[in-house]
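Hey L., structure's done. Input below.
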Amino acid sequence: MKQVKPLLIRQIIHALTQLHSTAKVAANQAHATATHSESVARSKYETFGLEASYLAHGQTQRVAQLAQNIDAINALPVRYFQQADAIAVGALVIIEDTQQQLQALFISPCAGGIKVAFDCRQIEADLAIDEVMLITPASPLGAALLGKYLDEQVRVDIAGNVKLVEIIAVY
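Output:
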């Protein structure tokens, strides 16, 4: 396990870096569209240029947020959780729902909802999970898992849908 968690963090950084690169291209394209001579309004009813500038601003904010996310993950100390440790930021948690579906979750300080390709068989041979989802403490599932322990059952209310999950592993 000591070699696996740094590998997972590298995969997360790689995924965020790819998203950052894609967002930079989109921001540059949006900026070029917003500043193009064809985008100049010829009447008060032509809003294409204004809409393009809003899009460029939003894309620029996305680029900045992704850069901050990369910095936050890079700064995250690698922590190896023991069976008796409470779940905290930096934990890789395996949960099982009532339909016996397994899910791998990384409690992250940022970038919640991003899924990263990662073969969990590297951790344990019987973990047939090929992706890890990042969740933050601010999310309903993240908040429900924080401070919990291995083998606990957790009730999670996600948009009015109550789900029961069991914590089957913490790394």
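Residues 40 and 49 are 6 Å apart (CA to CA). DSSP finds three helices and six strands in the chain.

-- N.
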